[in-house]
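Minutes, project check-in

Agenda point 3 was the complex the collaborators sent over. CS summarized: two entities, 705 residues total, and the question is how they sit relative to each other. Sequences were read into the notes so everyone works from the same version.
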Amino acid sequence: MRNIIRRAAALLASAAVLWGGSFPAAFAGEPYEVYNYDCWGEPIPSQAGYIAERAVSGTDLGTSPFSSPSDLFCGTDGTFYIADTGNNRIVAADSGLSSTVEIYDRFTMQDGSTTRLKAPTGVFVSPYNGYMYIADHDNSRVLVCDTQGSVEMEITKPDSEVYDRNRTFLPQKVIADKAGNVYVVLSNITTGAAMFSPDGVFTGFYGANRVQPTMQRIGDFFGRLFISEKKKARQMRNIPSGITSFDIDGDFIFTCSASSTQSTDTVKKLNAAGKNIFANMDVIFGDYTPVYDTSQNRLMAPAICDIDIAEDGNINCLDLTSGRVFQYDEDCGLLFITGAVSKQLGGFDQPAALESFGNDLYVLDSSKNTVTVFTETDFGSIVHKAAALHNDGRYDEAIGPWQEVLEYDGNYLRAYVGMASGLLRQGDYKGAMKYAKLAEASDIYNKAFEGYRMEWLRANFGIIAAVIAAAAVLLALTGKLRKNHRKAVTTEKKEG
Amino acid sequence: MMDLTQAQWVKYAVTHPAEGFEDMRWKKSGSLKIAFFIVFLLFLSRIAVSRLYGFQFYATYDKIFNIMPYIIQSFVLFAVWVVGNWSVCTLLDGEGTMRNICIYSAYALIPFVAQSFITTLLSHFLIRDESVFIQIIQIIGTVWTVILLFSAIRSVHQYTFGKTVLAILLTIAAMLIMLFLLVLSMSLLQQVYIFLYTIYTEISYRVRV
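CS then shared the predicted structure for the full assembly.
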């Protein structure tokens, strides 16, 4: 008897080993649990849209290790530029992140002298004129140079009445638009990005954040009416947090602000006039509920520290607090949440910058000194395909991909919205109502119901008309009968 | 004259806001059974409005269903109203008994309850653009109930117009005080319960060791 039990146990154990052994192939082990939000804004387990493939360090690229790098940029040709802040250099790597193409640490000025970088924190290469823009933080300047390293222009602290003379000029991030205008995020300025014309003349500030109208702000406003000037000067001022980083996509500039206390204007989409297109959108970027940090005993609100617009228009936001990349489609619909704070591959310590190239995501960690490469999963590619069709307005074509998405993950909220929109477009009102209900999308349900009601009325018009006519006749008849009856009763009484 | 059954009295009181309750008092009519049934319908209507409404108007949170808010919105609120009104009006020379206050107030709620059921039903046939019909019915039902309630309090206590207004305002104040005390005593009871439970666990651990 004991022998049999032992054999059975051995069999079970070996089966467990075999079964367990087959798992890692099916599920690449992320060091975190992948989740998404359901229609009630509550986190639920989901499938991964991106999987960490490898982490690339400086030595992997055939050069010395990075030292607290703070910016990553990917050119249109796929060349990666890493602002290696601690080593005072810009490292250019090939698109596969396998070897170094060039290291920029000394530049020739226009007068022939050489110059060195001091803690560069931002790098940008314009796809229009091919110039490289470097935010040379500790040298208080922005260098504009060609890819050979000869400086075309140097932008320093502007001598303008708009720019406060007492403030230093500390460029943090830099981008340039189609026309060659240069936008510089300054780490000590909260009034927006400094804007320079193509020839380096300061033209003003661009895209300042708004102050969040909290109860305290409103109270302060009324309190200020009664206090002296002296006291006012000592009081905390109502200043919005400045822009942390930005990215340019065609004519629009997307900015993000990493402030754990501010929740307005954390992500903005600015047009050429500096107007925020997302201003009236009811979207929370990052986690819906703050993360509780046990080590500091406080709630950590999301702090979006870098933003990247992918080629297909998706918005990737990097959250410093939770180490997560939140991917939104162009209409701010949440697609995927990737990453965590952890030591393993796929987690981050101090995420600093985010880029996308093709279907991959690249996250630079300034504490781990690596670039983590995330590749799209099968699930991710189907969702992207469906979302792209959906955002193009081709709802009916998106039905197929959305159905496939639901086969992977039956909790994926956007798929239900997509199905409802597609079926509504096709005129399948009943199906649209079903999916709209599952997506808690009452506006789509409203439209579908309108169509369904119309169809139902048309189909049953004959019966409805007949019923109404019958009811009218019946009412009229009973009314007459009652009148006659009453008359009869009264006459009877009189007679009696 | 005015020989109506209890059910007919309900109809009469609701359709005659000015003197309906006056006549009811004169005839010493009104049934406590019907009054409780109406309050039960009020309870059902609260649930219907928040759970059975057409999806195009609002999406309900379907993950949990807690019956307590509905009980509080109907039974508790009504009971507090009746007790509050009785205690205030006893001091203000009101002639109403607790029984009559309960009956008359419940009868006055009928338009509001009816409005809730009708709008819930309509919300399954209308779309958002037509929500004005729902709003009209809601307003009519609510205003009608307010007028009836006013008339009920006036006739049950034989008050003048001004005194009725005063009595209603004082009743609302009394309701707030009572609810406050209720919450207070609830939390105190909870504290006592927790205290006793801790002692129980403590002793049970000692006994075991």
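Noted in discussion: The helical segments of chain B are 6-15, 20-26, 32-51, 68-91, 98-108, 110-122, 131-157, 161-208.
Follow-up: revisit at the next meeting once the mutant set is ready.
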